[in-house]
Specification:
Length: 295
């Protein structure tokens, strides 16, 4: 069967079948890897050219060995060859006629006079994969010249700027969804029940000794009134939890003990005390905060 199908048909077909099977098993559901990453496509094309070159070399070696046989051996070899299917024979003949190549048995007609140390030179046509590849490169070069140098098509710098813009958007989206990346500038008031419940657990484990469980205040200030020593609102409360209270007094900085998302959760929970009535409220401290909790 190997001899019945020309290498220029067999090798590319087998090669792309293998590539297709690989893509089928590793496909991520998006674009195939060799389209998504051009370097992989170039590598696969290089492998394909190498395989075709190997096939061409093997075919040439077969021709050399065939020519070295005696007439009797050639006849025996030809008699043992498997009959080629008609369709394959038609394709091969059409292919050879198109290129004007001489068959092996007629190569003596195109041997050049050039002779060096018994080695003679054939004046046969170029292999089709090389010839058509050369034509394709000329067409590609012409299109490339017009597209990028005449009509000012996009360049690598344009692609880089586009990728930078896409990466910036992706980073911003990631920051919105990644709670542990929150800081004083990006923190927002959390209202989800799971976040408030987590904030309550953190408050009860670390804050009730100074602020009481109902937020009425003990060593620490009252969290239920509108008076704030370091400012109210989610950003100020988050900063106070993160960096601590006033120098020399007040609570410690919790940024070494709590994750950013945990500080956001407990800060949001603390603001839930606003407007409630504790059992034993401590006297107001600080200044009245006129803003809202979202600030």
């Amino acid at each position: 069967m190997r001899n019945s199908i020309p290498s220029w048909i067999r090798v590319p077909v087998v090669f792309f079948i293998i590539v297709g099977l690989i893509e089928f098993f590793i496909d991520s559901g998006e674009k195939p890897a060799f389209i998504e990453q051009p370097i992989i496509m170039l590598f696969l094309l290089l492998v394909l050219l190498i395989l075709i070159a190997i096939e061409a070399i093997v075919g040439s070696m077969d021709n050399i060995l065939y020519q070295s046989l005696s007439e009797e051996a050639k006849a025996q070899y030809d008699a043992q060859k498997v009959k080629t299917p008609k369709i394959v024979t038609w394709i091969a003949n059409s292919y050879k006629n198109l290129l004007g190549q001489k068959p092996i048995k007629e190569e003596h007609e195109i041997i050049l006079d050039h002779n060096y140390d018994g080695i003679k030179e054939l004046d046969n046509s170029l292999p089709p994969w090389w010839l058509y590849g050369f034509y394709a490169s000329i067409i590609f070069a012409a299109i490339y010249l017009l597209r990028f140098h005449v009509f000012n098509g996009y360049t690598q710098f344009d692609e880089l700027e586009t990728e930078y813009a896409e990466a910036k958007i992706a980073i911003e989206n990631y920051k919105k969804n990644a709670k542990d990346l929150v800081d004083i500038n990006t923190v927002e008031l959390l209202t989800d029940a799971s976040d408030l419940k987590a904030g309550q657990a953190i408050f009860e484990a670390n804050c009730v000794a100074c602020h009481k469980a109902d937020g009425g205040g003990s060593i620490g200030p009252n969290l239920t009134d509108k008076y704030w020593i370091l400012g109210g609102g989610i950003k100020n409360v988050f900063k106070t939890v993160s960096e601590g209270g006033r120098d020399g007094k007040g609570m410690i900085a919790w940024k070494q003990l709590l994750k950013p998302v945990e500080m956001a959760q407990v800060s949001s929970y603390v603001l839930q005390f606003q407007g409630t009535t504790p059992a034993e409220p401590k006297a107001p401290e600080g200044d009245i905060w006129e803003g809202d909790n979202n600030q």
